[in-house]
């Protein structure tokens, strides 16, 4: 009886292995001169995560971005990679602040969510009144088309159901820089000073010796295109290995570009890139982000304040807080709309 039971258990195990093999396929990818194989389950084409379902669909609002001249210059890009909304309150404030301080610059929101009654944020109704603000719906699946990352992007990132919208947002930021150049800002970066004075090509430090990705500017050039490709290759390798840190990817790429550069200095320069102190964009550290909900005054020397997705109780921005002072000063329309409506 025991031998018969063992036989059935063995057969069940074999069938399980065969079933998993039949339910998966091996994709070979070339990343940074190294061939990797990646096991992809075809069922992931059918069973998708809720927050990435829209990445595979086109809607009537999805633009066909044809060529590098699609976006007028100069431009500042924001990216929203949600599937259930187009933006949140902090993003609306970030967009208004950038638009007001850069009236001659095109402020572009690249979004992935379908435009529906449930996804149209009431704040969008006031942002579209800004003359230099533009919205462009992008099809995530085809966003890397025409680049060396097209196969990797579709096979691993878009159709790998463990990838979330935050990782996709990081990758898309560098795809945008790679394809179009310009300035990219994270969706919770509230600009306090005009960024033009920083130059055309710059990055910021994060911590003691790392570079951040919440604010980057790169002009459209072959050199910058090659550099962003270097960052994307490094990022792609991280995804393959499951050890993802885009700050490491960009820092290592700069170290390869400028060996021996001391990134601990307040300001340094590398092959035409200005590297600024992170305090210029996040004078308040992530660990101290609750300061935004306490009384205080914003740092007038900083070019921006990153909110670090600080959670506001309810919807209304509390009066007599640092967040309220920043919002009233740099995104008054959004602040007024939020605090009069709730």
Automatic annotation (TrEMBL):
<feature type="transmembrane region" description="Helical">
    <location>
        <begin position="7"/>
        <end position="29"/>
    </location>
</feature>
<keyword id="KW-1133">Transmembrane helix</keyword>
<dbReference type="InterPro" id="IPR051981">
    <property type="entry name" value="Glycosyltransf_32"/>
</dbReference>
<keyword id="KW-0812">Transmembrane</keyword>
<dbReference type="GO" id="GO:0006688">
    <property type="term" value="P:glycosphingolipid biosynthetic process"/>
</dbReference>
<dbReference type="InterPro" id="IPR007577">
    <property type="entry name" value="GlycoTrfase_DXD_sugar-bd_CS"/>
</dbReference>
<comment type="similarity">
    <text>Belongs to the glycosyltransferase 32 family.</text>
</comment>
<keyword id="KW-0328">Glycosyltransferase</keyword>
<dbReference type="InterPro" id="IPR007652">
    <property type="entry name" value="A1-4-GlycosylTfrase_dom"/>
</dbReference>
<dbReference type="GO" id="GO:0035248">
    <property type="term" value="F:alpha-1,4-N-acetylgalactosaminyltransferase activity"/>
</dbReference>
<dbReference type="Pfam" id="PF04488">
    <property type="entry name" value="Gly_transf_sug"/>
</dbReference>
<keyword id="KW-0472">Membrane</keyword>
<dbReference type="GO" id="GO:0000139">
    <property type="term" value="C:Golgi membrane"/>
</dbReference>
<protein>
    <recommendedName>
        <fullName>Alpha 1,4-glycosyltransferase domain-containing protein</fullName>
    </recommendedName>
</protein>
<dbReference type="Pfam" id="PF04572">
    <property type="entry name" value="Gb3_synth"/>
</dbReference>
<keyword id="KW-0808">Transferase</keyword>
<keyword id="KW-0333">Golgi apparatus</keyword>
<feature type="domain" description="Alpha 1,4-glycosyltransferase">
    <location>
        <begin position="226"/>
        <end position="337"/>
    </location>
</feature>
<dbReference type="InterPro" id="IPR029044">
    <property type="entry name" value="Nucleotide-diphossugar_trans"/>
</dbReference>
